[in-house]
Amino acid sequence: MAKILIVDDEEKIREFVKKYAVFEGHNVVEASNGMEAIDICKKEKFDIIVLDIMMPELDGFSTCKELRKSIDTPIIMLSARGEEYDKIHGFEIGIDDYVVKPFSPKELMMRIDAILKRTQKVANTQNEVFEKDTLKIDFTARIVTIDGKKIDLSPKEYDLLFYMVKNRGIALTREKLLTDVWGYDFFGDDRTLDTHIKLLRKSIAPYNNLIVTLRGVGYRFEA
Length: 223
Description:
By secondary structure, the protein is an alpha/beta fold. Helices cover 42% and strands 22% of the residues. The protein has eight helices and twelve strands. The strands form three sheets. Strands 2-1-3-4-5 form a five-stranded parallel β-sheet, with helices on both faces. Strands 6-7-8-9 form a four-stranded antiparallel β-sheet, with no helix packed on it. The mean pLDDT is 88.
């Protein structure tokens, strides 16, 4: 059972999500806007946050930025718009997943369960460190440093990098990366993967050549 915060100014949407989350055995707390969500998160801890973009007072993007200053709780963003810009911007500021309205409750629950399983798996991982010249990756602490300086990555960038490093030297198909890193049979297009690879390469710029593109196949981490 997980503790979920649902943030949406539409009461019907909150009730809709809560109904299925409670049915799955989760504990749900609601917030009607971003400011309320921030206040709640100062007092309570959550396993995952479902956050709408279009809200009064403080939109989802601004709310996410503020939350990321103090917590790394997984965030699934909801939006009535499916523009690529919104998705890329969301991933850049640290969301874990993006769902376009109207959505299937089954799909949303699958995404929530996948993220929860992945975060639990990471929490149970024994101490493990990977080093390549000045690049150091601490899997347990979720810390990446280059030349001794900490590199800030989004939650999904961490997941993608850790997965590729642990499977270094192996040709990873696009389908396998989407299934294993996102944790479910991906419903969106694979541009999501390309976007994250692009962001990850930018984040680890001095070592971006370690992520090799395999045309027509996928990617491989060489080290």
